[in-house]
Amino acid sequence: MLKLEKRRQPSQVWAYLAPVVAVVATMVVGGLLFAFLGKDPLLAIRTIFWDPLFGEFAFYYRPQMLVKGAPLVLIAIGLSLGFRAGIWNIGAEGQYIMGAIAGAGVALAFYPLEAWWLFPLMVICGAIGGLLWAMIPAALRVIFGTNEILVSLMLVYVAEQFLASVSLGLLKNPEGYGFPGSRNLQQYPSAHNAELITGSGMHWGVVAALIAVIMAYILLNRHLLGFQIRLTGEAPRAARFAGVKPKQLVLLCMGLAGALAGMAGLFEVAGPSGRISIDFNAGYGFTAIIVAFLGRLHPVGILLAGLLMALTYIGGEIAQSSMGLSSSAIQVFQGMLLFFLLMVDVLTNYRLKLAKADAA
Amino acid sequence: MDLSAINPVLLVASLMVAATPILLAAIGELVVEKAGVLNLGVEGMMITGAICGFAVAVETGSPLLGFVGAAAGGAALSLLFVALTQYALANQVASGLSLTLFGLGLSALIGQGYVGKKPPPSARLDIPVLSDLPVLGRILFSHDIMVYAGLALVAGVWALLRFTRAGLILRAVGENHDAAHALGYKVRRIRILAILFGGACAGMGGAYISLLRVPQWVDGMTAGTGWIALALVVFASWKPWRVLLGAYLFGGVTVLQLNLQAAGLAIPVEYLSMSPYLITILVLVIMSSHRSGAPASLGRTFHASQ
Q: Fewest Cβ atoms nearer than 10 Å: which of A122, B166, B226, B299?
């Protein structure tokens, strides 16, 4: 019988190895799943993980990595700060939607004015939209002690309904022949989040994501606030003795996560997506939770995890068109990744031992 | 707007139907949380149960077998949660989330072949005399069997927790797992059983949506019901009868807003659709001031060495 024995110190080796093992395990079990669905497993894994990077059409898919990865990284960086401190904001999807609506709303209000300050203003308003939406669960937790997990999640559904409402009403394109959805911001130069270098996939959202990674790294490793965040997560009691103000920390972590998610939403709606429509959100807010954990809540890890997750999105789309692999199979694949990661993670804090009898 | 189009008798009758999925899922989660485990994967188990139940019912033609399949599907998914939290000692919040994300994908995958199909109809219970009573007969005695099964489950859980030794042990494990372990109770085994029960209940709740309430298969059709069920357990202060009360309250809100949509109220449809979620938040805020009922070991990982 196998038995777990607690390690005195978390294993450094396993901290790095766990995500790798999780990815490999997901490939193996995912391959079995694809085989079960009647697809060639090796071909499917190759299509998802190899072809977007080194395949025949890699020149087209490589920029897509940045386009899909940027919102994931941006959201996950924000979430990771809270997760580290034991603050569970799982409503990033809602904050993403509200940020997009706020930012796009500003652009549409000024249409067809052309001005250099419009896009920066949109970014700020997008961040504020996400921030305010995240402040609802944060304030309720601080004032009433309400569970932020449930409130932030409920607000995703509220935001989705609000999105439906504005794309059918307030923000509907007046020249859209009655179809739902707003004007296309890609055709509005001052508001368009265009590629900075043509064909590179690099847009302002990618820049923002990279800045967020660097800032988060500095915050966590070189700043008192980052120390307080880590301390609160690892030893809440000690944190209180050390003078950490838990309420401020909740507001700050949730606010930052909301602002980053809101910005991600704005960059998406002003760039790759182009317009507010009923289903413009693609579930990045939820996938970012996987990215945050897969990156071990570490900024650099999140950057890598975000790119990997972007790869599964793109590879999944290729596999969908070339092999008929359904998009839900990719969703299962992504879910499996988090599952295996949490599973393997036990080896970071415990070591396996052979024992005669089961103690528990 | 024509409010007179809303028939109060039908409203109350459909309230009981609307409340049943939340009720089933919440009573299962109550048992899980009473054992000291926080399973945030209710939404994932519900949607898995919804498609498993739908698939079994369509293939066999029997709605009852469908519910059995749904319970099995929900429990099977909760086994993943067991592996994560009871064996790999993973964080329960993260594990619950992974269960939901995985369940949503899995259900969509299984459900591909079932889009647009019709499930076999479930028979309404027709009790002689009682069902023919004016008003009361329509409200209380002419539902399908799952509505009554839900009520029976609430009564059963209440009796189990309150009057039996097994219930006492379950609560002991949830209040203080170290003490329960020291007394020689199998903490892990008890928790596993509770989690499986919760999974089966959530699965049946999901199947009630896909087989009776909608009835068809749509991706992500549970639309947050599992999360509302989680909130309901908090609202109920971990007391079975208050889960029933809460479920009827939410059922009432859902049915009322649907009726108002149909009656053409001046408020846009989207804002009415928000109302169940907003009311959930409101209820959570009201209940957060007195959280006396929460099991003391809720959400904490148990390892015998510590």
A: B166
